[in-house]
Structure formats: C-alpha cells, structure tokens
C-alpha cells in the first residue's frame, strides 16, 4: 500500500518571521569565516553577496542564473545580476571588500565560468547552499530556523530601515510589481519611534 508523504507545514509553523536582522546576518557571516573549511572564504562571499544584492539562491548559484565571471565589470566595480522568476535583471555596484574576495576566489578557480563552484570546479548546486546555510546558522547559534530566501528578505528589511524609498528598493531587488516591495515597509519599526507613550 502506497503511503503519502507528510505535507509540509506552512512557514509560520517553523518561524515567526521570514527575514534576518542585520545583527543576525553579521553572526552568520562571522560564523562562516571562523569555520575550518578550506572553502570558508567562498562561503562567506556567497552569503555576503546573497544579502547585499538580495539574491535568490538560484540567482547566486546554478547553471541557469548563477553568478558568472563575465558578469563582473572589474574596471567599473559593478556586476550584472540576472534575476529569475520574471524579475528585472540589472547592474549593481560592488563594494571594495567584495572585489577583494572576488579576486581571491578567481585565483582559486581560474578555469571556472561560474563564481561559486564546488570542490570539483563545477557550479554549486542550490541544495548544497541550502544545507550550508542551515549548518552555519546552527553554528552561529541563531534562534531562528534559517533558509536561503531569508537573505533576500534581510536585504529588503535592511534597506527600508535605512530609509531608502520603495521605488529604489523595487529597482534594486528587481520586483516588477511594487506590491512585492511594499511588504518591507511593514518591517520598518523606525516609523513608530516618535510615538509618545507619556508616563506609560
């Protein structure tokens, strides 16, 4: 008799929120660098870029949309982000620390056309990144069950709390429908900082 696999419960069953705070992202990055893995620097840059550029896991790695070296414009300090799921692709600036790590990674895997590759020099699989982030989050002692897409949401959360407007964030994340961007404004607690509670 065939048994039906148990249906996965909704995200709300596993966690109260679907984004990471800046301090949690920092803990994740620090835990990545402190690992004894020979690929700690690659993994650090992977997570840093997923956060800073609001990347879905399939936009960071994978044969179809994964980041490639020909997308990096070294002279301009920029990278072309190819978005999936019907989102708009575009050019993002690269910060100096990203360029430093990218140059080191290029030296490590000079033959690969993809930025993030496995030990065998093949493009990393999305499932490998999912497992990696889960392990690192546990090592970082985070009190929330972390998955890859939380890095993209963490980017939106960070930008809205830094005061950037919805249209800028929409363009940065490649949202075609601004409704997808507007959900981040609800995560901006700074809006309520001027509430006066009197003596209470």
Radius of gyration: 18 Å
Q: Which fold name is given in CATH as the topology?
A: hpI Integrase, Chain A
Structural class: mainly alpha
Oligomer: single chain
How many separate domains make up the residues? 1
CATH superfamily: Intergrase catalytic core
Mean pLDDT: 90
Tally of helical segments? 9
Give the overall form.
globular
CATH architecture: Orthogonal Bundle
Task: Give a structural overview.
Helix content is 43%, strand content 5%. With 200 residues, the protein is mainly alpha-helical. The protein has a single domain, classed as hpI Integrase, Chain A. It has a three-stranded antiparallel beta sheet, with no helix packed on it. A hairpin with a 4-residue loop joins strand 1 and strand 2 (78-81). It is globular. The chain starts with 10 loop residues before the first helix and ends in an 18-residue tail after the last helix.
Itemize the secondary structure elements and their pairings.
Elements: H1 11-14, H2 22-33, H3 40-52, H4 57-60, E1 72-73, E2 78-81, E3 90-93, H5 96-108, H6 126-139, H7 149-161, H8 166-173, H9 178-182
Antiparallel strand pairs: 1-2, 2-3
């Amino acid at each position: 008799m065939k048994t039906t696999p148990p249906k996965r419960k909704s995200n709300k069953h596993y966690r109260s929120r679907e984004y990471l705070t800046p301090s949690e992202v920092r803990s994740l990055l620090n835990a990545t660098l402190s690992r004894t893995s020979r690929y700690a620097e690659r993994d650090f840059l992977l997570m840093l870029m997923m956060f800073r550029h609001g990347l879905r896991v399939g936009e960071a790695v994978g044969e179809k949309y994964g980041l490639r070296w020909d997308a990096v414009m070294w002279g301009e300090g920029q990278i072309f982000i190819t978005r999936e799921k019907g989102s708009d692709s575009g050019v993002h600036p690269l910060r100096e620390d990203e360029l430093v790590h990218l140059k080191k990674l290029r030296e490590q895997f000079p033959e690969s056309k993809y930025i993030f590759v496995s030990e065998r020099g093949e493009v990393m699989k999305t499932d490998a990144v999912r497992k990696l982030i889960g392990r690192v989050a546990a090592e970082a002692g985070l009190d929330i069950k972390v998955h890859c897409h939380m890095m993209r949401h963490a980017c939106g959360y960070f930008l809205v709390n830094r005061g950037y407007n919805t249209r800028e964030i929409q363009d940065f994340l490649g949202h075609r429908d601004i409704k997808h961007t507007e959900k981040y404004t609800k995560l901006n607690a700074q809006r309520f900082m001027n509430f006066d509670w009197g003596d209470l």
